[in-house]
Amino acid sequence: MNLIPLNDEAQLISIANGNEPVVLFKHSTRCSVSNMAWKMFQQEWNDSVFPVYYLDLLNFRSISNAIATQFQITHESPQVLVIKNGQCTYHASHQSIEAARVLAELNN
Asked: Per the confidence metrics, is the pTM higher than 0.90?
């Protein structure tokens, strides 16, 4: 997995202005549901070339708020978003997070 920590709002600006599709995974490290969703996502994810930005919500809540504002998506945790050409084209939360659906959207 091409995992990139998301820990600076400048990264978010770069993602929003980029042309390459990316995945944002928002995760609360103290939440058992979030931990389960993150582990399942990692197990299901293939060796895709698409970057996955990982956001630790407990340490970077302001970035999560910026994501909600930038992409007009209600904050949830855990949550996965697909960003293409500066737009959120897919998002899911909790037990609805499936790596296969994320990959399908990325390859669409």
From this structure: yes
Burial label, 102 (beta-carbon count in 10 A; 0-12, 13-18, 19+): buried
List pLDDT tens digits, range 23-75: 999 999 899 999 999 999 999 997 778 999 999 999 999 999 999 999 999 98
Sequence-separated (6 or more) residues with CB below 8 Å from residue 32: none
Pick from 37, 19, 20: nearest CA to 28: 37
Phi, psi (deg, nearest 5) at residue 63? -70, -40
CATH of 3-106, one of 3.40.50.150, 3.40.30.10, 3.40.1050.10, 3.40.50.1100: 3.40.30.10
